[in-house]
Amino acid sequence: MAKENKPEAWMSGPVEGIPPLLQPVAHALLQAREEVHTYLEGFPDKLLWERPAGVASVGFHLQHLKGVLDRLFTYAQRQQLTEEQLSYLYAEGKPAENQAYHVQDLLQAYDEQVDRALEQLKSIDESALTDFRGVGRKQLPSTVQGLLFHAAEHTMRHVGQLLVTAKILLHQEKG
């Protein structure tokens, strides 16, 4: 889990194609992806669903990182969640019986979601950032900007939790 000495995403210059006001969102998503890969390098599949001290598992965090980005970016597009998205939400953190989960598969799914989010950011008109967006069935009030920035900060929050859980599990594994 050694971290390279390279600048963080926000110090690497603008992300091509992303509007200036959305650069912080793009930088946070890129930083999160980089850190998740760094923290989980060599992480064993057998520890994916372990919950030390009752905290959320690494598997949950990987599923949730993908799912929450998908959901928040869906709301930012003024769309409601599909049945498939709702099913994914309810299944987060619950490994299906008779299904093998691999760290690399969950990482790939997360990477693909980050790529979709970055592509979506490229198409957002900055003049629409303060436009109302209803969240969920109750249409709780937010804005395009609010949803996108929440997606970024929520992602980083779970990356931090994932790091701690992974470190604890690896420490316990070493005995």
UniProtKB/TrEMBL annotation:
Name of one Pfam family that matches: DinB_2
What InterPro entries does the annotation carry? Answer: DinB-like, DinB/YfiT-like
- Domain DinB-like, residue spans: 29-162
Name of the protein in question: DinB-like domain-containing protein
Upper classification of the source organism reads:
Bacteria, Pseudomonadati, Bacteroidota, Cytophagia, Cytophagales
